[in-house]
Design brief:
Shape: globular
Number of helices: 3
Structural class: alpha/beta
Oligomer: single chain
Distance between the termini: 44 Å
Radius of gyration: 13 Å
Order of helices and strands: EHHEHE
Length: about 90
C-alpha cells in the first residue's frame, strides 16, 4: 500500500507529536511523530511506510507541552481543537 492511499484521524486529548528531545518523554508520546517519519530513527526503520502530515487530522486535542507547537508549525498541521466545556 502506498502512503498516498492512507489518511489518519488521530482522536486524542494529546497530540502525540513529541520527539526524542521533547519535554514529555516516551514512545507513546511520539506515535504520530513516528507515523510521519519524524520520529526516533530506531523506530522509523521498523515502519514499512510513513504518512504525510497533511494526511493526518489531529482531533480533540486539549493537552499540550510547549515544545509541541513548533512541531505543529514545522510539519504543517491544522489541529481540530476540543471546544471548551463549562
Amino acid at each position: 500500500m502506498s502512503s498516498d492511499d492512507l489518511a489518519v484521524v488521530w482522536i486524542d486529548s494529546h497530540p502525540d507529536i513529541g520527539t526524542p528531545k521533547s519535554e514529555y518523554k516516551g514512545y507513546h508520546a511520539m506515535a504520530v511523530t513516528a507515523l510521519t517519519g519524524h520520529g526516533d530513527p530506531d523506530v522509523q526503520k521498523l515502519l514499512p511506510a510513513t504518512v504525510s502530515p497533511d494526511r493526518i487530522a489531529l482531533v480533540g486535542l486539549h493537552e499540550w507541552t510547549d515544545d509541541d507547537f513548533p512541531n505543529i508549525a514545522a510539519w504543517g498541521w491544522h489541529p481540530v481543537l476540543r471546544a471548551p466545556t463549562n
